[in-house]
Amino acid sequence: MDVDLVVVGSGFFGLTVAERMANEHGARVLVVERRSHIGGNAYSEDEPTTGIEVHRYGAHLFHTSNERVWEYATRFTAFTGYVHRVYTTYRGEVFPMPINLGTINQFFRSAYGPDAARALVREQAAELDAVLAGREPANLDEKGVSLIGRPLYEAFIRDYTAKQWQTDPTELPASVISRLPVRYTYDNRYFNDAHEGLPVDGYTAWLERLADHPRIEVRLDTDFFDTSQPVHKDAVVGNVPVVYTGPVDRYFDYAEGELGWRTLDFEQEVLDVGDFQGTPVMNYADLAVPYTRIHEFRHFHPEREYPDDRTVIMREFSRFADRGDEPYYPVNTPADRARLLAYRGLTEREHDERGVYFGGRLGTYQYLDMHMAIGSALSMVDNRLAPRVRV
Ligand code: FAD
Ligand code: NA
């Protein structure tokens, strides 16, 4: 095979590796992608009847405080001034999220200042102190109450989390939430990063520019494990260095068992109204509503000229993934962590003996924001690939 590097997967991790290795280090890179489009989960496309950009695998908001990643990203796209904000519907009333002074005062029909609100939440969060008597919360329910008190926890966290996990929070490990930040100001800006925005001409244009180099070839509809096509695992590994960004358990034929993931189901609809909900993302906190949230994509790009009599919405449902479902969020039970450790042993050997590099969210079994995937790809190129891949 006449290439210096094979990259499996064309998400942000794989494309960043391909771009750097081809452009900065002169490597000829072959990218194989199982799907019929590039970009991994950040891929977006225009809904054909309205022209509204839809993020096919869930809404993607770009934000970072990593200056290197920001500088790198802006070589390939400009960003709009979009600032992310989220609201939630609870029992027929809309509240700002994350929980902030506005949420608290609306919920308790009060006019607390920061100190009074802090004191109230502290008092409510002490409810379980006697019950716990010094021990750690035994499940997510106890943890939630002990972090922010029962009223706010039960309204805004409990049932939403139950829907995300399809599991009653008394059955969920406390580790599912590490903290529940409450803001004692009216600031409901969702992210706190130095840089935030959406790609001016869309995610796919950005992703295509990463791949647009004479030394990069992308083969779509090509599964690395499909032995009927030439660039499959057995034909490549050991002969050419490989960066693998697919699921790590799949690479080893599930030898150490399957790693657990949650997946999402999306229900997209074009409506004959100009504006359905007045905001990009509305969460639904009530258990009786089966979806967790609704995205309305026109609001991600208020600067664009979209039709004023039609809109695209997407309802999001959450559940445990079966094999064959898209893996979205690691479940990360103790059993998963034990399996992951076993896979780490295998990936180290595969790296040392056969030149395979595991990266990205699927290859390392961890949730990565886009800026983290890009940052970790840049580090892999500098520290591990550039010194080792011979051109
Ligand atoms: P992926 O994008 O998953 O790319 C992996 C690629 O490998 C895929 O294209 C896959 O088809 C391919 N592949 C797998 N197996 C094979 C095989 N056998 N052969 C060939 N190809 C294969 N990040 C943010 O910063 N902001 C957000 O708001 C945000 N929202 C998100 C919402 C959801 C629902 C999800 C799931 C993720 C979100 N992310 C967000 C994270 C973002 O999607 C990831 O950071 C990014 O996808 C990571 O890129 P990656 O290359 O590691 O993985
Ligand atoms: Na998101």
TrEMBL record:
Q: Which Pfam families match?
A: GLF (PF03275), NAD_binding_8 (PF13450)
Which keywords annotate this record?
A: FAD, Flavoprotein, Isomerase
Give start and end of each UDP-galactopyranose mutase C-terminal domain: 155-367
> Does the record bear Aminoacyl-tRNA synthetase in its keywords?
no
Cofactor entry: FAD
Q: Which InterPro entries match?
A: UDP-GALP_mutase, UDP-GalPyranose_mutase_C
User: Does the keyword Cell wall biogenesis/degradation belong to this entry?
Assistant: no
Q: Which family does it belong to?
A: Belongs to the UDP-galactopyranose/dTDP-fucopyranose mutase family.
- This protein is called what? UDP-galactopyranose mutase
